[in-house]
Amino acid sequence: MEEAELMAGCEIKSVYAGIAGGHIKGFNSQGVIAIKNREVCAEDVKRVIDAAKAIAIPMDREVIHILPQEFIIDDQDGIREPLGMSGVRLEAKVHIVTGAVASAQNIIKSCNRAGLDVADIVLEQLASSEAVLSADEKELGVALIDVGGGTTDIAIFVDGAIKHTSVLSLGGNHLTNDIAVGLRTPMAEAEKIKQKYGCCLASLVGKDETIEVPSVGGRKPRVLSRQLLAEILEPRVEEIFTLVNREIVKSGYEDMIASGVVITGGSTILEGMPELAEQVFNLPVRRGLPQRIGGLVDVVNSPAYATGVGLVVYGSKNVGVHEFPSAQSEESIFRKVSGRMKEWFSEFF
Question: What is the DSSP letter of 169?
């Protein structure tokens, strides 16, 4: 944070924080209302979205995002911006993302202890999509796969709107762990080996390529074939992509992702990742790099920075929408986290 302040020449008071994890659940919902004055106004849009989010959610979960997909006026569907249109009945289709309240609290607490307010909590794959996807891809249909350290995040866009989100509890840390166990080397060294020599397609590695592997317990380093490293990584990466593919099929949108798959996140820097993904998904695959940014572009020109850049882009679009100020007590943190749900909770509990 101090480095960022020095480079940007400004003081950082609040942050947009990303959230991911196995607790994240996304689902689609819809709501219907009667249009009051025969013409859709901002109040009608707010009411129909409130109607769509009026669903029973356990007390230990919180709504993180309500993302409108499309509006339907009378029988006319596919409307993106209903304001000012005439009709009697307004319907909204939305995608709702929920997460554990405790996880959101922990993120806010961590930021507060570092002296920062949390402007909003953002689903990580939604942030990444802001940085790496083009409007054309979202329109045609695209699956974004963000392979992070601890999780693999999936987001499917069709007709310019988000249709499906899910999070798998598998990521780059599992690859590092496999290398540490398979090559009998410390975790820190396994991470370095993965970054420097990692390849997840054994057919791309030459037979005579070798790597030096440090040993544990003061033993001498060993020289091993790079092919062996690829044979350790390939099954695990294939497993991650197979599980993602199963998730896409389960969502029912596998026939709608015409523009293919975009993979991003630090783990996708591995050599052979797009080629292996193409074999598993049977679709065109590309690496997603942060786009449409100025300044120190070279520094962040890597899939590893997709979520970070995406959070900045998201923040610039939604500045001032939410604010979780610093909280002194457990109770007030909970109150602030549930702020967005307050009106809805009061109706049911």
Answer: S
Q: Domain check: are 88 and 205 in the same one?
A: no
Q: Do 158 and 275 share a structural domain?
A: yes
**pTM of the predicted model, to two decimals?**
0.88
18, 37, 112, 326 from 15: Cα distances, Å: 10, 40, 10, 12
List residues bridging with 155 in a β-sheet.
Answer: 144, 165
| Cβ-based neighbour number of residue 240 at 10 Å | 24
- Identify the burial level of 136 via C-beta atoms within 10 angstroms of its C-beta, where 0-12 means exposed, 13-18 middle and 19 or more buried: exposed
What residues does 199 pair with on adjacent strands? 271
In angstroms, how far is the first alpha carbon of the chain from the final one?
A: 40
3 state DSSP class of 8: helix
Point out the domain boundary residue: 94, 118, 142.
118
**Pick from 177, 170, 121: nearest CA to 147:** 170
Neighbours of 134 (CB within 10 A): 14
Judge whether 5 lies within some domain.
no
CB atoms within 10 A of CB 61: 17
Mean pLDDT by 10 residues, the chain (349 residues): 89 94 94 95 96 93 95 95 96 97 96 94 96 96 96 96 95 96 96 95 93 93 96 97 97 96 96 96 96 82 94 89 53 50 54
Distance CA 67, CA 64 (A): 10
Name the phi and psi angles at 70, rounded to 5. -160, 160
Beta bridge partners of 14: 117
